[in-house]
Design goal:
Number of helices: 10
Structural class: alpha/beta
Largest sheet: 9 strands, mixed
Order of helices and strands: EEEEHEHEEEHEHEHEHHEEEHEHHE
């Protein structure tokens, strides 16, 4: 199946990224109240396959861009570590099957493959518990050195992705190397990392920042209000202007839709009203889909005079992909591909720009 990128032309030719590679389980919790420090809470263990951030983002970038392990027409190169165990073997096989070049994913003997516990409240909100002493914690500068030659070869045609679940310093090192090479720099953070990322100036080395409402609040100190998101949007825009004026922001607000910021302009794309099995992984699906569109040369935001019924921007395409993904119990929906996007578009009278 072909992807968004043709054989002869694209804006970017490769994604080289770091982040977590692992598996997990998903609990559906009883009750919408926040978890307490000393609380025991009941819930249902769901029949779901959970994956970590680098894997999810890379998967949908590979699927929608039309990646192959030989790098034609787009090359997806994750850098990470798994354990020498059954889980690591399965994940590597799945990544290769999606078209990723896994030469920089190392299986190590002394630590297990990362295994997270994801939880979801009845209202769709949720989070996860991710071990910091699994295989991805051992990612180091030598691993980046192994990929340096390819980063240099692609240069400004490379997307450098710094995703959570590996040490913050390694992610910053990749962004520094990418800056030197003129690559397009993409990053996301969990809320607890935001203060350190700001302190070391990491956000100054980001071209596209992907965050949700909790991460945006950690970035700005302004809480998100469902009834009035504008104070948070203004605070994010003010931060961008003071930190990295050319930065784009991808802000995912769940049922509030997604917002994209570029050159002083916020654009909202409303969430699709589609059946929901699990929202876990939707934000990473959104980002991977958007990166595929950017690699193909699509604009990040829709033009101000965009016709209704035509998906012409990365933000719109990513929002649709994320909306479809929540119908799956798995954080990587195995049936979500470009053919399904096109079929959905035809069924609903939409055209892919």
């Amino acid at each position: 199946m072909c992807g968004l990128i043709g054989q002869s032309s694209s804006r970017y030719g490769a994604m080289i990224g770091v982040g977590g590679i692992g598996a997990g389980i998903l609990f559906s919790l009883d009750g919408n109240q926040d978890l307490g420090r000393n609380e025991s809470r009941g819930g249902r263990l769901l029949d779901s396959r959970d994956y970590c951030k680098l894997h999810i983002i890379s998967h949908f970038l590979a699927v929608f861009a039309g990646a192959t392990s030989e790098g034609r027409p787009f090359h997806v190169l994750p850098i990470g570590k798994v354990g020498q165990d059954a889980s690591g073997d399965r994940l590597l096989a799945e990544m290769k099957g999606a078209g990723m070049d896994c030469r920089f994913v190392e299986a190590i003997a002394d630590l297990p493959t990362l295994f997270a516990v994801c939880y979801q409240f009845p209202d769709g909100a949720g989070g996860n518990l991710t071990p910091t002493n699994a295989a991805p914690s051992q990612l180091n500068e030598t691993d980046l050195d192994h990929a340096q030659e390819l980063l240099e070869a692609y240069g400004s045609k490379a997307i450098a992705l710094a995703a959570p679940e590996v040490p913050l310093g390694i992610r910053d090192s990749l962004l520094r190397r990418a800056t030197t090479m003129g690559a397009y720099r993409v990053a996301s953070f969990i809320p607890g990392e935001m203060a350190d990322a700001k302190r070391i100036g990491m956000l100054e080395r980001v071209d596209l920042l992907a965050i949700n409402e909790d991460e945006a609040t950690a970035l700005t100190g302004v809480p998100y209000s469902v009834s009035d998101p504008h104070p948070l949007l203004k605070a994010c825009a003010d931060f961008v202007r003071s930190c990295q004026p050319s930065m784009r922001v991808l802000l995912s607000l769940g049922r509030g839709g997604v917002y994209g910021f570029e050159k002083g302009r916020w654009v909202q794309v409303k969430a699709w009203n589609l059946p929901v099995s699990s929202t876990a992984g939707a934000g990473d699906t959104l980002l991977g889909s958007i990166l595929a569109c950017l690699a193909a040369g699509w604009p990040f935001l829709p033009a101000e005079n965009t016709s209704t019924g035509v998906l012409r921007s990365a933000l719109e395409f990513g929002n649709l992909a994320a909306g479809l993904s929540v119908g799956s119990p798995h954080t990587i929906d195995p049936g979500l591909n470009l053919e399904r996007i096109r079929a959905f578009a035809v069924e609903h009278g939409l055209t892919l720009g």
